[in-house]
Amino acid sequence: MTISHERERLRYAVIGAGMAGLLAGIKLKEAGEDFTVYEKADRLGGTWRDNRYPGLTCDVPAHAYTYSFAPHAEWEAYYAKGEEIRNYFELTATKHGIIPHIRFDSEVVSCIWGDDEGCWTLGLPTGEQVKADVVIAASGVLHHPRMPDIEGIDSFAGRIFHSARWEDDAPVDGVRVGVIGNGSTGVQIITALHDRADNLVHFQRSPQWIMPVPYFRYSEEEREAFRRDPALIDAIRYDEEYWSNIHRFTRAITEVDGPDIAMVEQLCLDNLENSVRDSELKEKLRPDYRAACKRLIYSWSYYDAVQQPNVVVEREGIARIEPEGVRLKDGRLQPLDTLVLATGFEADRFIRPTTVRGRNGASLDDAWSVRPTAYYAISIPEFPNFFMLNGPTSPVGNFSLIDIAERQWDYIEQLLEPLRQNKAQAVEAKAEALAAYDERRIEAARTTIFGSGCSSWYLDATGVPASWPWSYEAFADAMAAPVMDDYALTPALEPATAA
Ligand code: NAP
Prior knowledge:
Blueprint: E1 11-15, H1 19-30, E2 34-38, H2 47-50, E3 57-61, E4 79-81, H3 82-95, E5 102-103, E6 110-114, E7 119-123, E8 129-132, E9 134-137, E10 159-162, E11 176-180, H4 184-193, E12 199-203, E13 210-211, H5 220-228, H6 230-237, H7 240-254, H8 259-275, H9 279-284, E14 297-298, H10 302-306, E15 311-314, E16 318-322, E17 325-328, E18 333-335, E19 338-341, E20 355-357, H11 364-367, E21 386-388, H12 401-420, E22 424-429, H13 431-446, H14 472-480, E23 487-491
Parallel strand pairs: 1-2, 1-9, 2-5, 6-20, 9-21, 10-19, 11-12, 11-19, 12-15, 13-14
Antiparallel strand pairs: 3-4, 6-7, 7-8, 16-17, 17-18, 22-23
Helix pairs in contact: 1-12, 5-6, 7-8
The protein binds NADP nicotinamide-adenine-dinucleotide phosphate.
């Protein structure tokens, strides 16, 4: 007699307790699954835990930068501060009962697929090994600070640190502060410190286009209204204008000769022309590449900040760092007490340096030797039951990464179905599917605005934009339903038989 073989519950390992890992945890908990979230730090929050610099704000509207299932009435303003977002994730994780499932101080150092066992073995720094049938890599994108290679950097006599490793006891009030780096981070720090530092120097290797955006605070009455009526929150989250701006932005990225990018460029240009009074400063701040080629900076107050008398925009190149400050290529010294390195992140690392090995010992480093990639940003051939959230080739730009991760999760859940129903033991993208996807993606990526001739973390080591190159609608459509023919399913184990 044959008895039906119910697969034992799948064991899930989620790597990372940031926004995406918590999302996976919440969804797995709702589905009644057996899961653990491994977190290298002693606190959750990912990028919102690591980044604590003054002025840290998310430039996606707060009500859109929340999980769709966990609206939040308490945001203080249209754009949320980093600390508020960190608290939101802690609150949401607590409310959904995820905290007991998180193993803190548990960095996953290796992740090895066992061909015989048909499951993953995760190694922790203690030597402990744990088994998982499914791995969800939610280890973030921008989490390895990039330290600049500047001569004399170790000789600085004051305080020097990366923006993502903010030192709370470093002096910034009433002293001379320098900020190297002009991405979203550097701009936010300058904006926050201009009325605290005595002298503030913004070292810009490349100027940035600045998109003016509205900023306003919510009153207590408005928050009370949000608490009483979540439909008011939805009205903001799903606001037609917000979404038409998203779609306009993706058209701007993908149609480099179209009217939408022209509008973005005009808005940025008008902002520069109308906001900056001094003509010399205006020229210093004028980029020589197209708007949105680098990640567009959204700011309502940067130009005001750099026009304060105690703020200097320094476009002269840096020769070296000396004990007293920054020596410029023209020989001048900018003397400083504190120097912040807002120099960005190693954006091509993803789950690495964790050692990941798939079928037959296939190494992730080898698979990614040219560039990190994954089929639809989710799955890699030879790495069965290994799924990424916000993985390589995901959309980047001025979008909510939460919305992106939620859509990716819905897609992953559909891939999990054959495993959950015991119709397959493993699922992974087919090599030919990834190759075809890569070819199409790279061809399209080259023609996006990101590839129009500037340096940025959007470019991979070969100079190709590393992101989703099509519209947001196309991303949403792709995530709605996987093409299952593009996935290889390993048959489930033979049903157990009994005499
Ligand atoms: P980033 O955009 O990569 O900017 C790094 C900056 O450092 C650039 O201006 C770069 O100049 C400069 N730089 C790097 N090495 C240098 C060197 N050796 N000498 C002089 N300058 C150097 O990094 P980020 O500002 O930290 O932002 C990274 C990403 O984080 C953003 O694009 C965004 O996705 C995210 N972020 C988001 C928010 C938000 O509000 N949602 C806020 C902050 C960050 P070049 O341009 O000349 O290379």
